[in-house]
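Sanity check

After download, print the first record. It should look like this:
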Amino acid sequence: MPRESHTQALLGPEVFKKVRETPILVVGAGGIGCELLKNLVLVGFANIEIIDLDTIDLSNLNRQFLFRKPDIKKSKSLVASASARHFNPDSGIKIHARHGNVKDSANDVEWIKGFGLVMNALDNREARSHVNRLCQAGGVPLIESGTAGYLGQVTPFVKDKTECFDCEPKPVAQKTYPVCTLRATPSEPIHCIVWAKSYLFGKLFGEDDEAGDEQELNQAKGEAENADEIDNLKKEAAAFREVRANIGDDDGPRKMFDKVFKDDINRLLAMDDLWNKEGRVKPTALDYEGIMSGSFPTPPLRAAPAAAASAPSANGSAATEPKSNGAAPAANVNSAQLRDQRELSLKENVELLIDSSRRLSARTISHPDTILSFDKDDEDTLDFVLATSNLRSAAYGIPQKTRFQVKEMAGNIIPAIATTNAIVAGFIVMSAIRLLSGQDEGMRKVYLKTEPVRPIAGYGPNTPNKFCGVCRDVYIPFKADVARVTVGTFVEDVVKGWLEEGLEGKGQVEWTVNEGSRMLADPDMEDLYEKTLEVMDVGRGKMITVSGEIKLGGEEEYKPLRPVHFCVCNPSPNAEAPYELPSTTPSIPLAPVKKVDKAPKADFEMLDNSAAATDGGKAAGKKRAAEDEPEGDAKRRKVQVLADDDDDDFEILDPKK
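Expected structure tokens:
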């Protein structure tokens, strides 16, 4: 009996026929993508294309079960497709695997229209938005998904029936710190980690960038830092070039230690004005010989509130007195304690700094054309950041962090859990079957939560946001020979001659034509009319956006129209005309105008990883209510946006009871 016979019996012949024949696109072959591909093969989906830009890393093997150790450095999509075929080898399943970027020009609107369903298993917001726009332009249903720890979501998006991925803005969780806080006056462990990862590592082993130094100084000036601090930054930049040049010498790491943790700190201590501000704590210069001999006393931790002094530390034990000689306390040298969970002594941090510096220096000498960058899965770079951030923390009286904590904070990691990926992948397939069955009215957003009473919750999708700049815009396929179509031809013939026929109402119209952030034409700009689209680098995969304003008869003011996006595609084979347009002109409605006197219903709160880990996803901001929800509905939906750069990064919508 064929493996998929049970699926056919459950779904019925008509739906199962769609499962077998509908072309499916899977975007992403990571944690969710591996589980999803396996599920699709087992259910019987027979026409699958999967695309992923990434290659397999050692850290992927604990949860991405289609990969093995010999596959490291190979294409995720290619290996995943080869492995998944073995789950159902005799079913006639075809998997077209591509190692590439979904944002490549070849992946245009005509390409996306070749699929009956798109499933996102992506790890970054920009790519998600790109696929969402493609699906809206091509009218292809999209199933979005994501996981973060024990949290997960699956959301179907269908053009004109549900909201789209971009109907609600996703705030950017990019935390920044003033230059001089990182370089001179850190007060938190994260300041020292960011300094070690983004500044010190780059200065010693990254690209030698004098322009970057100048930009950093300009940033410090813009942040109104005092003149002494800025002058200190200039001297430091010059001194680092000499240290960098000699880091490969036998005594290079030692000289680097003295420069960074002794000389630089002494120079800062000489700047009296720097320490006059309330709350700033003077650092202690570290002594190499004293630390290595055990005679150097560990600088005391800076004063903490009384409540925190007796609170449990990160490992659950009460806070202890500072170490007196640079040796680790007995609890930290317990052989049973995991290496990554153990706090290092000052001496161990110095030894790790010297050792990692030599390893990194050897790499730069053997491969001089390769620019090193921090990678949380690179032992050498992680060891360097661990040691230098802990030594800086010690100098400033800041609590040190374990290897695991530094990796988590430097990599901005929410741990990926294989079980969560598997559950979410299962819900994706269930959602796909529902869509193929024509049960649009039964579409559900599914949430995996950490609430014991209700770990899985499902809700009906919201309606489209009428102000959305993605799903409410107009999209037109524009098959063109860009070498023969000029900007002037596009404006005069396509926009003014063809597009204006679709206007709702007649009147005076003014058009502006852009490609991305570039303006190609407007009522007062015709300079580029003679240039072809090819010369302007407007080719396949690009979108030409036409924005218009219309003054209807009898009215004095112009009103904005919905933007129209012409999706540039390759011309049809043997086409004689320079371009092709749809047989009917689309309707172009007026754009809605927001009322400024009414408070918006969308209010977002960005939660960092620590908040997500401690509250189990309970904290959230408000989300735009569905139009049919009463204003006082106790089940008002909320949105939680988790900031995570891990393989399974996502925006998780978390509706509450």
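If your output differs, re-run the checksum step. Summary of this record's structure: The chain is about 35% helix and 15% strand.
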